[in-house]
């Protein structure tokens, strides 16, 4: 088990957050074992998650999509195989979830993560998240 960070998380610092709909996307070439967490994209404090999808390589493994507070907030358990590679966010309580970071936090964002479940995964993981912001924030 390990935690892997995509380049979208390590190389991108959100500065300006625009009111309205925003979309973030990342892909990461990984070789990870079961139980590994891949931090894929950053979402700012106050973001309301409205939609998303994950795409996985054609390996046979289970995956979940969540955040630091709940590893399966958006996709509880999806089975990846040669036939099924695209997984939509399907957890009802994840849709409309508002990201909340404490005022004391230095980082004003959280990550949306993929948890590799039942077996190892080698290949490209992709994640796309659409969120709504009700205010403009110039960081």
Topology:
Blueprint: E1 3-5, H1 7-10, E2 20-32, E3 37-44, E4 48-55, E5 61-67, E6 75-80, E7 86-88, E8 109-116, E9 121-133
Task: Kindly describe this structure.
The protein is built from one helix and nine strands. The mean pLDDT is 82. The chain has a single domain (3-133), classed as Jelly Rolls, CATH 2.60.120. Helices cover 3% and strands 50% of the residues. With 139 residues, the protein is mainly beta. It has a five-stranded mixed beta sheet with strand order 1-3-8-5-6. The protein has a four-stranded antiparallel beta sheet with strand order 2-9-4-7, with no helix packed on it. It has one helix at residues 7-10, and strands spanning 3-5, 20-32, 37-44, 48-55, 61-67, 75-80, 86-88, 109-116, 121-133.
Compact summary:
By secondary structure, this protein is mainly β. The chain has one helix at residues 7-10, and strands spanning 3-5, 20-32, 37-44, 48-55, 61-67, 75-80, 86-88, 109-116, 121-133.
Please tell me the CATH architecture by its name: Sandwich
Q: Strand order, biggest sheet?
A: 1-3-8-5-6
How many distinct folded domains?
Answer: 1
Shape descriptor: globular
Q: What is the averaged pLDDT score?
A: 82
Quick one: biggest sheet?
5 strands, mixed
Label the structural class: mainly beta
Question: What portion of the residues fall into strands of 2 or more residues?
Answer: over 45%
Number of strands: 9
Class in CATH? Mainly Beta
Report the radius of gyration as a whole number of Å: 14 Å
């Amino acid at each position: 088990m390990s935690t892997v960070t995509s380049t979208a998380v390590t190389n991108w610092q959100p500065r300006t957050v625009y009111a309205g709909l925003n979309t973030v996307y990342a892909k990461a070439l990984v070789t990870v074992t079961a139980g590994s967490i891949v931090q894929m994209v950053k979402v700012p404090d106050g973001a309301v998650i409205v939609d998303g999808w994950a795409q996985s390589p054609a390996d046979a493994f289970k995956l979940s999509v969540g955040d630091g507070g709940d590893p399966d907030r958006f996709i509880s358990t999806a089975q990846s195989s040669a036939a099924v590679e695209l997984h939509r966010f399907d957890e009802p309580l994840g849709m409309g979830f508002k990201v909340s970071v404490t005022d004391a936090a230095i980082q004003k964002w959280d990550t949306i993560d993929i948890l590799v479940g039942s077996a190892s995964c080698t290949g490209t993981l992709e994640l796309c998240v659409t969120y709504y912001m009700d205010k403009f924030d110039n960081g």
